[in-house]
Amino acid sequence: xxxxxxxxxxxxxxxxxxxxxxxxxxxxxxxxxxxxxxxxxxxxxxxxxxxxxxxxxxxxxxxxxxxxxxxxxxxxxxxxxxxxxxxxxxxxxxxxxxxxxxxxxxxxxxxxxxxxxxxxxxxxxxxxxxxxxxxxxxxxxxxxxxxxxxxxxxxxxxxxxxxxxxxxxxxxxxxxxxxxxxxxxxxxxxxxxxxxxxxxxxxxxxxxxxxxxxxxxxxxxxxxxxxxxxxxxxxxxxxxxxxxxxxxxxxxxxxxxxxxxxxxxxxxxxxxxxxxxxxxxxxxxxxxxxxxxxxxxxxxxxxxxxxxxxxxxxxxxxxxxxxxxxxxxxxxxxxxxxxxxxxxxxxxxxxxxxxxxxxxxxxxxxxxxxxxxxxxxxxxxxxxxxxxxxxxxxxxxxxxxxxxxxxxxxxxxxxxxxxxxxxxxxxxxxxxxxxxxxxxxxxxxxxxxxxxxxxxxxxxxxxxxxxxxxxxxxxxxxxxxxxxxxxxxxxxxxxxxxxxxxxxxxxxxxxxxxxxxxxxxxxxxxxxxxxxxxxxxxxxxxxxxxxxxxxxxxxxxxxxxxxxxxxxxxxxxxxxxxxxxxxxxxxxxxxxxxxxxxxxxxxxxxxxxxxxxxxxxxxxxxxxxxxxxxxxxxxxxxxxxxxxxxxxxxxxxxxxxxxxxxxxxxxxxxxxxxxxxxxxxxxxxxxxxxxxxxxxxxxxxxxxxxxxxxxxxxxxxxxxxxxxxxxxxxxxxxxxxxxxxxxxxxxxxxxxxxxxxxxxxxxxxxxxxxxxxxxxxxxxxxxxxxxxxxxxxxxxxxxxxxxxxxxxxxxxxxxxxxxxxx
Length: 822
Known about the structure:
This protein has 822 residues and is of the alpha/beta class. 44% of the residues lie in helices and 15% in strands. Among the domains are: 6-78 and 122-387, no CATH class; 390-552, no CATH class. The strands form five sheets. Strands 13-14-12-11-8-10-9-3-4-16 form a ten-stranded mixed β-sheet, with helices on both faces. Strands 17, 18, 19, 20, 21, 22, 23 and 24 form an eight-stranded mixed β-sheet that branches. Strand 3 and strand 4 form a beta hairpin. The longest helix is centred in the C-terminal third of the chain and has 26 residues, at 727-752.
């Protein structure tokens, strides 16, 4: 639970409504400590529960949990308090004439308004969202806004401080968001993917003066995606008049075209929405009207001497394009003068108004050459920019920028050679090491080992590049919080630097994982020759750094995706450091296997609120591991302290063609199945012919575990099933899967020299409990489709199943031993 300063609430002129809201949400009023990402990402009893109704004190926790799972129904949480009122009203309405005196009902002392005032005002869903936003620290805010974007929701752009009313621009929260869209240029389709803070797009600004009968937010939703409430509006479930934290907030959303003729707009367009009466929020009004390509205002007919009328008059005189919407007028679209429109809304269908408004906006955009860039909002005076206001965030950015300056304008394909010299020889070492485990004819094991020793000595002779020296120096200067800002900034800037010029060559990819690989190889070369490097003072600080990153919630590369090899010495040292820092904790290891682009990373990220690192614009390469903490209350109910989540690259990856794909897939499957207590086998659809290969790889991997007396388990997840409610169809699908697994087991048993007739002879497996069917990920067609809430519910059910498998656990030290043996 977030806590706020007691003094802030008791300063002169305190806001009673706000105090009441935070009291309802059980926000404590003691200190200024903020809610951290680590607090909400842990496994709690609440995170495993699903209820129809929640108490008001559970609203914040429930909203966060649903949002982290990309469930857009996070905004539509029903409370027990509201439900009780509904039931009471229903009971009152069900009384017969004999039980209730109609005369008293109509003419009694208690009026309907008195009855309403006696009932507690329900908490507005957007107050829950903004309460979390105000409580969160910088990292949780960024995670929250990233997830809101994935839910295709509008994002906070300008936010008045609930206590001081100073306006904040939370630029930091947008740094991880990328948008993709397609535009038509004659018959050519042009695809774009950009960090949203860099994208230059037209911007349409909506605002209102006074109270109006039409919903501005609902009008905007019809323009962006009529099937989804991008902006919360008065007709959404749970809406009430008791909104406290949204007044003066500006939200932003983007329409991203798909390159089809049915697109409402041909280019990516930003839409900004000022909540509340614009006349009371002059600063927000001034900033957005200046930056907009088109201004759209809702207003009632006013006296010409009215203050708001003078603002409209100035906008009308200005060269800026303007559309005025009058809820009390019946007129269709009227062009007053060039690109100044009036549209009446009274007694007109929503679809007609939306179509007219869309045409008027498109006509205006054709005339406008102005573009909007998110970063430019920070140039306005009298607003607070979170990145500048937070000293740790600012220092992290400055340090990352200094390191990035070393890259200059160098060719990305040559950056690795000059800045990461240890990795080229590492690839050679990996190739030789694989030869040890495969028949090589006349090559002797002694020759291969001698060559590998020689490679390690050559590797050790390399100097540490200035880039890596600077990285190690910078990261050792900071405390844990500052380190996280530095690493986040470096990842953001590296992705920005590489994605602009990313070619088909994997050599062009250069991310944080490549830096950590180099550090790993510096460590391995020193350990292999038992000698430190002269420009490295403390060798043990390197695995210690990686262990700290894991404890802080960062993923670490377990298997090098380029070399297709596990750096055993490095990973073992990192796990040893984890034991030193945490103790030899009980861990439940969860891994995932499946074809490339089958939704493995998306599934894990939704399940645990994670953000697995991948190179910009590419699928997962190799394998990454990330720690998820179990809360203290849950540790008494289950047998482990952490879940170690292992995300893997896809099997049958096209880029592996010619690299003995079959061997690679078998090795990968054997390694991650042996490492894990439970492996999720991720399969797209139910076509048995298509899953034949992956099932064969999986069965053989589990058979090898049986031979070495390891007892992992698995759950099959069928993704993208159109009708997951058809029980008969699912029963038939399970039966066919069981038959296929048994058939493959018989063949694999002969090949591996095992005694097994059925898949259940190899591992403990229940086809009724250990096969899950997932709905399609998207509700509609990307890029504007939100995630399917049914998919999110499937994720929640799978999460419960995973926890129920927790009887089989490991210790960190056992993981280290397994990796060394592998």
